[in-house]
Structure formats: structure tokens, C-alpha cells
Design brief:
heterodimer; A: mainly alpha; 7 helices; disordered N terminus; B: mainly alpha; Arc Repressor Mutant, subunit A; 2 domains; Sigma-70 family RNA polymerase sigma factor (chain B); RNA_pol_sigma-70_dom (chain B); transcription regulation (chain B); RNA_pol_sigma70_r4_t2 (chain B)
Amino acid sequence: MASFDRHRNRRDNRVDTLSDTAIEGKDPDFDAWLSQQLQFHEPYLDNDGFCEQVMEQLPAPSRRSERRAARFQYGAVVAASAIVAWQFPFDRVWMEALQQSISLYSLVGVGILSSLAAMTGGILAARR
Amino acid sequence: MDLNDGDLIRRVVDGDQRAYAQLVRRYQSQLRFSLRQLCDGDRGLADDMAQEAFIKAYKALPAFRGDARFSTWLYRIAYNLVMSHKRKKAPDVDQEAVDRARSEESVEEAQQLGMARDLDSAMKELSEAQRQAVHLCMQRGFSHEEAASIMKLPLGTVKSHVNRARAKLQTLLQAWREEVVSGQL
């Protein structure tokens, strides 16, 4: 405080008779310096349960927005599956399967199982 | 992963409350610190107001159009709350809490280093409006327009507060600046 008083006494008269230039604030260096000092000396306030208290008091999210989010996730999974199916060379796999004498039923079974696994994984990932 | 405010807000509107927790954590320190100044150091009141502001912002988030930054919008809500609280409760200021805060402040003040202490004292020389304008523009980095919308003052008035405060601070803190420039610090 002593240093402040010392500087203050030296300049008390100048505070009340500010020049136009000072009032207009034509010193960008000072602005940057002051801004830096103000930010540097600001303490960080620990969360200390503040966030948890806020979250406890929030109203529950509406069912409508939950349903909308779920619809969006299912839509994304279906779209992704469609793109994969579009790009997948079914005809070649089919021909190969015939040549290798793989039974049609086991092939369909494997296909369904892998699609289910991919969709479940996609849904779980999207929900997380 | 650190998402930006816009992404988090979209998630909140889609029903993801955890995204809002991220926003609260991001802004809690700054907002609580700002409100402490606005509440004359009454920390309990400042925290209550900050909490209420976050809750009010959450409820109003679906209507947030995004034409201002989230922080500006949040500060506007918080400042409105404090101002209307001050208007309503003006005669019932918790003097004990203010005195307690002041005594804590003076202990903190004694522990502060020279520059921080003098900066704090210089800020106390400003009027409340000047202090708020400087705080918002120079400490928080809001533009004059944003500060005007938060403080609900005309743009010219905010500019004038900032300029006068800056000039006062420039005079009061000149010696520190000279010391920094001349490398004595």
C-alpha cells in the first residue's frame, strides 16, 4: 500500500485534470499492459461443488428431446449401414460363396449376425 | 475432447445435460469472480446469483439464437439478476456478509504482492460503473458493444466509462509501468 500511496500522492493532482489525450485513451500499449495485469492477477476460483449444485437444480431434459436424440442416432446408424451395403460387392461374394459351396442359409445367417453386431456397436458408440 | 461453446449448446438443446456441465465448468470461475465485484464482495450472494444465472441460462438455451457469444448472453442474464436483486433488496443488504468479505479481503490484500495490491487499490478508486466497464472490456475481453449490452447502458456511456477509468488507472499505475519498462521488476 505504501508504494501505491507514494505514487498516488505524486499524481493526485493529475487525476482530476486529465488531458483529452488521456481521456481518449490513445495508449494501446497501456491497454495491453493493463489488460494483461488484470488477467494475470485474477485468482482462479475452484469449482468446489459449484457445478454439481447447478446440475442438481436443472430441470430434467424433456422426453421429447431425448426421443429426438435417439431418432437422430438410429437414423445415423441406418444411413451408415446403407452406405456400407451400397459399396459392398455382394455379387462377387455371392459368386465366390457358390464356387466355394458355402450354404446359402449359413451365408444369410452370418450376414444378419454381422449386421446386428455392427448396428448394436454403432448405437452404443453413438449413445456414449 | 474440448468442444466449442456452439457444439456444447447444440448438445444441450438435444437433451445432453453433461454438455451443460462442461459449459458451467468453463465459465464458473470467471462469472463468480465478476459477480463478487458486483455484489460488493458478498461471496455467498455472488455464488447464489451465478448459480441462478446458470440455471436460467439452461432453461432459456433453446431460445438462444447465437447472434451473441454464449459468454455475453450469460453475463447479461447474471447482471440482470444481480441488478434486480439489488433493486428489490436494497434496504436488506447483509451487512455482516459484506463486513466479513471486507475483512477477508483485507487479509488477502495484505498477502498480495505489491503490483496486485496497487492494482486492486487503483481499481477501488474508480466509480462502480467505471470499474465494471473496465472489468468487462479489459479483463474479460468483451467489446464495448458487448459490455454495453451486458450493463444495459448506451454504447457511448460505456466508452466514456472505459476511457475515463483507463486515464485514471494510467495515472495511478504509471510508476509500475515505468518500472516494468525499465526492467526493475
